[in-house]
Amino acid sequence: DAGVTQSPTHLIKTRGQQVTLRCSPKSGHDTVSWYQQALGQGPQFIFQYYEEEERQRGNFPDRFSGHQFPNYSSELNVNALLLGDSALYLCASSLAAGAGIEQYFGPGTRLTVT
Amino acid sequence: KQEVTQIPAALSVPEGENLVLNCSFTDSAIYNLQWFRQDPGKGLTSLLLIQSSQREQTSGRLNASLDKSSGRSTLYIAASQPGDSATYLCAPWGSSNTGKLIFGQGTTLQVKP
């Protein structure tokens, strides 16, 4: 049973560039959430996708956008990168978008902005 | 608004000790609480999910307890091993954070051989 997968593993970008991160949910899961984790901090919720729509959004600027495909995989796009966007980006999947549904996390993508 | 605090922030113990990690949350109206483990630079691994109707949940050497009324959960690790070295995070699900997990900063555990 494949777990949550993310690509790429590591990424180095320059300020002002754009980046796309990818996530495939655990088999059978239909909901994908994205989190940003700065060094030494707990993960911060970015947004959640269910039925190809953004269902919830955390306190992140519009530079952060996403998409969910019919096969439930998801992309996170960040435009006009800032140095402060350097972080570990985590994808989590779950069966349904309700509260209290167990979340399964992927290995993350380490983004470094120089 | 849900806020999560984990104490201590860091812990270093010799191998074999039993230890307790603490998690406090401000909104006690929760559905459940999930404990995670994170190795350096890696993703989160779910350890235990304890429902609001439960007081305890066990998996191997791990035991999580939940006291909703006081807004507290503890993770007990028995007979610690060097392989337990990691950061441990708790995340309560509640009506004030429907659809998203709220994390504290975690407790970083080092178990010395």
Brief characterization of the structure:
Chain A is an all-beta fold and 114 residues long.
Describe the structure.
The complex is a heterodimer of chains A (114) and B (113). Chain A has 114 residues and is an all-beta fold. Helix content of chain A is 0%, strand content 50%. Chain A has no helices and eleven strands. Chain A has strands at 5-7, 10-13, 19-24, 31-37, 44-50, 53-57, 64-68, 74-78, 87-94, 104-105, 109-113. In chain A, strands 2, 4, 5, 6, 9, 10 and 11 form a seven-stranded mixed β-sheet that branches. In chain A, strands 1-3-8-7 form a four-stranded antiparallel β-sheet, with no helix packed on it. Chain B has 113 residues and is an all-beta fold. Chain B is 0% helix and 57% strand. Chain B is built from no helices and ten strands. Chain B has strands at residues 4-7, 10-14, 19-25, 30-38, 44-51, 56-59, 62-67, 72-77, 86-94, 107-112. A five-stranded antiparallel β-sheet of chain B has the order 1-3-8-7-6, with no helix packed on it. In chain B, strands 2-10-9-4-5 form a five-stranded mixed β-sheet, with no helix packed on it. In chain B, a hairpin with a 2-residue loop joins strand 6 (56-59) and strand 7 (62-67). The interface between A and B is medium-sized, with 29 and 27 residues.
